[in-house]
Amino acid sequence: MSPILIRALIIMFALLIIASITIRVMSLRSPERDWTELRQRINTWWWIVIVFALAISTPRAISLTIFAIISFLALKEYLTLIPTRRTDHMPLLWAYIAIPIQYYWIGIEWYSMFLVFIPVYVFLFLPMRMVLIGNNKDFLHSASMLHWGVMTTVFAISHVAYLTVLPGKPETGPLLVIFLVVLTECNDIAQYLWGKSFGRIKVIPKVSPNKTLEGLVGGVVTTMFLAWLLGGILTPLSGWESLLVGLLIGITGFIGDVVMSAVKRDIGVKDSGKLLPGHGGILDRLDSLIYTAPLFFHVLYYLHY
User: Fold this and answer.
1) Could you write out the DSSP letters of every residue in 10-68?
2) What is the rounded CA–CA span in Å between residue 148 and residue 291?
């Protein structure tokens, strides 16, 4: 492992340690306030960072397998939430089979197939397989929900894995993953802290009552600053490009969060699952990454590859 990658991992865990100490100090200074949600968010990010650190510090085959398992768990959790037709067990099986195939394209670095496999081939194949069953009831509703699940849990998350095989030095890909995960993590925590401290104006109260304009703006500005600070160290981005990417991650992280909130409200659940201790399911914590990963990847690819 290269020295810069070791330093980057140390920075990532140092940020978590600082966040853990900060919440401890704030709890002691203001014991009357409820810090449970923030504490749970930080504890869950510990688990996520450990998994991603393991994924980027192992050989390619193991690394892609870890990312594929994350997609599998996320898709499984999603499919347990939504109502599915009894007759759709084979299309569901094919949706799971798409996971290793998508990550195989990454393993052999077939970029064009990576881009079109799910949005074109899988999206056309799954409805066709559902038609062959002969059940027309709720067909469009079922096909749409399955498409959304595969798009978010497999296609979106697989962009994080593709960062690890981009051309460059061996540590280039892992450093890009660290940059993306750290910024997404800090944006999530910063928006919560700014909103908790200064939040007054509700942004979308019917979907996520705790989201405030002050939290959103504070989180985005914090993320832009961190992007500017880390961009020149961990990525090929210039100063202005880093600020642009920070803005992008700050806003799209917020969008991913509220979109998943809308999905859970539509289904009628508070948490997507119980996989991560103290903070619901895997989708509850990857909601921001589902939006930030593909957009960060394509902006980076457009600018430097």
Assistant:
1) HHHHHHHHHHHHHHHHHHHH-TTS--HHHHHHHHHHHHHHHHHHHHHTS-HHHHHHHHH
2) 13
Q: Which residues pair with 212 in a beta bridge?
A: 202
212 touches 203 (CB < 8 A)? yes
CB 95 within 8 Å of CB 75: yes
Which residue type occupies 289?
L
For residues 181 and 240, is the Cβ–Cβ distance under 8 A?
Answer: no
Cα 199 to chain center, whole Å? 25
Tokens 């100063």 map to which residue? 239
Q: What is the pTM of this model?
A: 0.88
In this predicted model, what pLDDT tens digit does every residue of 251-288 receive, in sequence order?
A: 999 999 899 888 888 888 776 666 665 556 788 778 89
In whole angstroms, give the CA distance from residue 50 to residue 137. 44
In the chain, which residue ranges form alpha helices assigned H by DSSP?
Answer: 3-29, 36-56, 60-81, 89-107, 111-116, 123-133, 139-150, 157-163, 172-198, 213-234, 239-267, 282-304
- Cα(241)–Cα(299) distance, integer angstroms: 9
